[in-house]
C-alpha cells in the first residue's frame, strides 16, 4: 500500500449525512441509484449517482445515514451531477456494502 501523510488524509472531507431520496439513474450504463443526502446546514444537500443496486433501493435507504467524501470535484455521471462519493466496501463480484454509522448522529459530522 502507498503511504500518505496525516496532512494528506486531513484534506479529504468525509462526513455523515441522511438519505432524503433515492431513484434509479435510468441513463447509466450499469445499474445505479441517484441519492440526495442531507449533510446539515454547513454542507447542505448533495447528490450522488452510485452503483449500489445489489443490496440497496429506496425502501432500505431513505432515512438511513451514509458516509461520504464531500470535497471531490463534481462529475457528470449519465446526466447526473454527482457531488459526493458515498463510501462502501466492494467485494470480488463488484457488489457494494455501504459504510454506515452504528447509531444515528448529527448530519454533517466529520469522520476522522
Word description of this protein:
- The radius of gyration is 14 Å and the shape is globular.
- Strands 3-2-1-4-7 form a five-stranded antiparallel β-sheet.
- It is mainly β and 112 residues long.
- It is built from three helices and nine strands, in the order H-E-E-H-E-H-E-E-E-E-E-E.
Topology overview:
Blueprint: H1 6-11, E1 14-24, E2 33-38, H2 40-43, E3 45-50, H3 58-61, E4 65-69, E5 75-77, E6 80-82, E7 85-86, E8 88-90, E9 96-98
Antiparallel strand pairs: 1-2, 1-4, 2-3, 4-7, 5-6, 8-9
Descriptive tags:
mainly beta; about 110 residues; single chain; five-stranded antiparallel β-sheet
Helix content estimate: 10-25%
Structural class: mainly beta
Low-confidence stretches: none
* Shape field: globular
The biggest beta sheet is recorded as:
5 strands, antiparallel
Order of helices and strands: HEEHEHEEEEEE
List the strand order in the largest sheet: 3-2-1-4-7
Strand content: 35-45%
| N-end to C-end Cα span | 20 Å
**Overall pLDDT, averaged?**
96
The Rg value, from CA coordinates, equals: 14 Å
Outline:
The protein is mainly beta.
